[in-house]
Fold BTB domain-containing protein.
Amino acid sequence: MSYFKVENQIFKVHRHFLARDSIYFQELFAGPLGDFGTSECEAIPLEGIGITEFECLLDFFYNGMYRQQTFSLSQWITLLSVSTRLSFDLLRAHAIQSIEDSPTTLDPIDKLVLATNCKIPEWLAPAYVALCQRPNCLEEWEAEKIGLKKTVQIARAREAFRDANYRSRTPSPMFWGRPAQLSPVQPMVNYQAARAARIVDEVFFP
């Protein structure tokens, strides 16, 4: 057992799960701090980790592996964030899959922030496409979350998407399916999604 200091709170935790699944803790225990943690006064500090995050991490390892279905989307997001920073690769992959499989849809702005902070490149394009097609423009608080550069790029993509829709109201025949398979609205939806994806590629991934 080892003592860890997270913010101003002391945790007494068995090293087994930490050393087994995390490169971060493997290196920590092998380094100079590895000899500490035997008492509260020598608790190993975990900088940059919040109490709620560490509690959620411990809850997963001590209980969550047996009742994962009870974890909420917000808990999986917390686990994704902390597992990324503490190098729990298997947990990180599991959190990503659980967020993708969640019945609750993640807001495109939140998904974009997560993709950037947690280095999930496959989430970027779908988030940009969703924001490109969204009827309403970015709110001020959303712009603050993603930064000036991304806000300008999204505005440029949205403008290009709307200009393209204005110039061409009729979808290309190549996107039309057989009448028995698609409703009259579906071909236009498919065409606009493909158009938005093309514009996103041009603006964000030239």
Q: What stands out?
A: DSSP finds ten helices and three strands in the chain.
